Amino acid sequence: MTTCFRKFLVETFGLERLGEGEGVLDVAGGKGQLSFELVNLCRGVRSTVVDARNTDTINYRKIVDRHKRLAVKRRAHLRRKQPDFDEQNAVPISVDSIPYEVPGHVVAYFGPDLWRRDRDRDPDREKAQERARESWERGYGGKGRREREATTSTTTTTTTEGEKPKEKKKKKVKPGSRYRGVAHDIVSGTWAAYIRQQGETRCLGRFGSEVEAAKAFDAASLEAFGPEAKGLNFRDEGVGKGPSPAAGEHAGGRHHAVVMGCWVCGPVGRGGEPQRAIQPAAKCDDGVSGYSQHKSFRCPHNAARSGEQIRPRRLDPEEAARVIAGCSVVVGLHPDQATGDIVDFALETNKPFALVPCCTFSQTFQDRVLADGKRVSTYEDLLTWLRQKDDGRIKQTTLGAPGRNVVLYRTEG
C-alpha cells in the first residue's frame, strides 16, 4: 500500500511540486515508511512525519536494511545490462555503499491547535480534538504507558417470561506492570520490585514509578548474578514470580522461559488484556526487567533485535512550525483520527492534499453529519463527508493495492 501511494503522489503531483517549499507533510505517518520512500526514492523530495509517537520507540533499522538490499539488486541489474560488463572480474556491490536519509519527525498530535497556534480558537473544535486524541491514546499511545483499569459494559442473560433478567458484570482488569520483577500495589499506588534467589523471593522495596522499580530490580539482578544476568532463565532465578510448571511451552513452561515483553511494548495489550508469551524465549531472555532488555536492543517485538538502532531526528517547535506552514503537499495514509483534520488543514491553508481514509470512528466523532442530515456511520459515509468539505474539487480514485485503497485528493492549492 505504501509504495502504491508513493507512486500515486509522484504521478499526480510530480516531483517538482512535491519538492517545493518544506516538502511533503506526512500526517499520522507512524514509523515513517512513506516518508522514507519519498526522501530516498524520489529525487529532490523532502518529507516530514507528524505523529504523536515518541521517537524513542521508532527504529528505522528494518526499513533501512530493506532499502539497501533492494538498492543493491537494482544496481547489480543495471550493471549487468552494460555492454562492457565483465561478471567474472566484477567487484560485488557492498550494502554499506548505499546512502540513505531518515526523515524528520514532529512529535505532536495533528490538530487545529498545532497549525493555528493562538489564533482562531474554537472551543467546540478543541473538545472534538480532545476526544480524538483520547481515542488515539487508547489505540496507540497507551501501550504500556499507563495503568489500565477497564470496566466493560454489562451483559444481560436471557430468561424465561416473568423472571427478572440477570446482569453479569465483567471483572475489572487490574493494571499490570510492563516490567519483569515489578508489581503494582493498587491500595498504596506504589510499585514494588521483587527478586528471586535460590528459590526465595525478596522484596527490594516500594517505589513511586515503574521505571524506578525496574531499575532497582536490574541493579539487584546484576549485583547478584553479575554479567550473566542477561542470560538467566528467569523462571528459576531472577524474578519474583514465574509461570506454572504445568504451563505449555508457548507460555513459558518447562522447556522455555516466559517472555513478558519489554518496557515499551508491554506485557499488556492495547485493550488491557495480558499478552501471550512470545516464542522462542531463548532469543529474548535477559534475566532483567525488560527495561534493560529494550535498551540492550534485545526487545522481542523490535524489528531490529540486535545491532545499531536508527532513530529519526525530532524537530524542535520552531522548525516544526516552519515545516507545517511551508509544506508543499499534505498527505495521509490511513491516518485514523487525523483524517478530517488533514482536509481541514489543506482547505484552511489552501494546500493540495492526498488522503487514504481507513477507519470511521463513528463513536468518537458523533458530530459528523452529511449534507442530508444523516450521521456518518459507515466507510462510504466517511468518504462522502470528506468530499462534501469542498464539493466538486475533491477527486476520488483507487490504488492498485488490497484493503482500504480509496484516495481522496485535490491537486490545486
TrEMBL record:
Residues 178-235 form the AP2/ERF domain. Residues 167-177 have a biased composition (Basic residues). It is found in: Nucleus. GO terms for cellular component: nucleus. Gene3D superfamilies: AP2/ERF domain. Its main location: nucleus. Keywords: DNA-binding, Nucleus, Transcription, Transcription regulation. It comes from the Eukaryota. Residues 118-137 have a biased composition (Basic and acidic residues). The keyword Nucleus applies. Residues 118-178 are annotated as: Disordered. One of its GO terms (molecular function) is DNA binding. Residues 151-160 have a biased composition (Low complexity). This is AP2/ERF domain-containing protein.
